[in-house]
Amino acid sequence: MSYQVIARKWRPQTFDEVTGQEAITRTLRNAIEHQRLHHAYLFSGARGVGKTTTARLLAKALNCHKATAPTPTPCRTDDPTQCSSCREISESRSIDVQEIDAASNTGVDNVRDAIIGSVGIAPARDRYKIFIIDEVHMLSTPAFNALLKTLEEPPPRVVFIMATTERHKVPETILSRCQQFEFRTIATVKILERLKLIAKAEKITIPDDALREIARAGQGSMRDAQSALDQVISFAGDKIKKEDVEMALGVAGADILSRIIHAIANNKPAEAITVIDDIVMRGHDLRNFCRDLLAHFRDLLLTRVSANEELLESAVCTPEELKRQAALFSESDLVRFFHSLAETETKLRTATQPRYQVEIGIVKLMELRGVESIGEILGRLAALESGQGLPSSNKAPSSSGSSSSGRLWKMRHVDTVAWSRHRIRLRSWNWK
Predict the structure, then answer these.
(1) d(CA 129, CA 98)
(2) DSSP readout, 63-119?
(3) If we measure between CA atoms, which residue out of 296, 264, 257, 261 comes closest to residue 367?
């Protein structure tokens, strides 16, 4: 038997196993138990959060042969006594459950052939005839129009389950005829718990901090995290260390980020360049490094402005380390760092020499620490205009002084004010 990837092997078999979508699965279970089934559902959300999996579970729940009516606990795939309907739905070959990829069947003719032409035919064997339309937002406008009437008044025993990553592209006329479920991105903690279960069952030896790096690499997607785990296992085998995860996935660990922060805080560009050289030598992707550093700046800013540690559940460093690093910068510093580095990350998409872009971008962060805020400049300008807070050499001479000295002071004062205003304009243009 050929190897089956972890993301497919560990696909949830019951509603309870769908991680991070408890509100949705509870609603669907209750609807099945109380026979309050809708004829059209729309599942939307980010990639890899359980939309297609939940659609198949709902199809199995409606057509499971082991129960005399729809059941919230259909057959498991690993159950040798599972019914033929659940087995065929799991293998995507059920005659009464049609899975349609809207990305490759976008035209009105495809909709007429696959759906409208067969929707009036009664289920061949199961209770319901179910149409699962993946990436439904890819359908053309004529295709949506052709589907509209059928979706509004479908024949008995017909259920539509549509999934999309871009709900805003689905016409309002379609949305108004569906029960809509928004799938959330999954918390890193919940992904970590699932990866621990998988690693234990697969007999993989891996520390929690390494698993946390894999869970964080998923960025809220369970499927992406499981694929990353598969990749690390292929790289390191069944005994995995944190260094293996960083090498295989090209992610920046806490030590690398701490070294960069230390270099920026102490204005040591040579040390920062050395860290970037280390990253390049390890084979890490520089865009991924920029994204990791952007996320770290975000975590540092939240550490300064908020005491809610739940907002930092995907942070690389511990809360204590975040507080120590955040104390090195002001909120204005961190905001400037974020915007400047985001610009660098954008340039990396088309850069012919990405290393040079990153090196210059990191050194630029150190230069930004010397930039004064607009509030400070305006305060100094107001003091100059009011004649307060000036150095003793620039203060107005007494009435006993010569008139030429008075004129000289006025000229210097006007020039200073004009130059301050000019710097403000230059600074505002530079930020734009």
Answers:
(1) 8
(2) H-TTSSS--SS---TT-TT--HHHHHHHTT--SSEEEEETTT--SHHHHIIIIITTT
(3) 264
Q: Give the count of alpha carbons within 13 A of 299, CB side only.
A: 26
Q: Which tokens hold the place of 427?
A: 């600074």
- Residue 252's CB is within 10 A of a number of other CB atoms, namely 25
* Token pair belonging to 293: 């550093």
Question: Phi/psi at 132 (nearest 5 deg)?
Answer: -100, 110
Shortest CA distance to 316 belongs to which of 296, 287, 341? 296
8 Å CB contact between 43 and 54? yes
| Residue 134, phi then psi, degrees to nearest 5 | -90, 145
Neighbours of 347 (CB within 10 A): 15
Of the candidates 49, 1, 5, the one whose C-alpha atom is nearest the C-alpha of residue 23 is 49
Sheet of strand 97-101, all strands in order from the earlier edge strand to the far edge: 97-101, 129-134, 158-164, 40-45, 179-183
20: left (phi over 0), alpha (psi -120 to 50) or beta: left
pLDDT in tens, the chain (432 residues): 478 899 988 999 889 999 999 999 999 999 999 989 999 999 999 999 999 999 999 999 999 998 888 999 999 888 888 899 999 998 888 999 999 999 888 889 888 888 888 888 888 889 999 999 999 999 999 999 999 988 988 888 999 999 999 999 999 999 999 999 999 999 888 999 999 999 999 999 999 888 988 998 888 899 999 999 999 999 988 899 888 888 888 777 788 899 999 999 999 999 999 999 988 887 778 888 898 899 999 999 999 988 787 788 778 888 888 999 999 998 888 999 999 999 999 999 888 899 999 999 999 998 887 666 666 677 777 777 776 654 444 444 444 444 444 444 444 444 554 545 555 554 554 444
CA-angle at 399, arms to 397 and 405, nearest 5°? 40
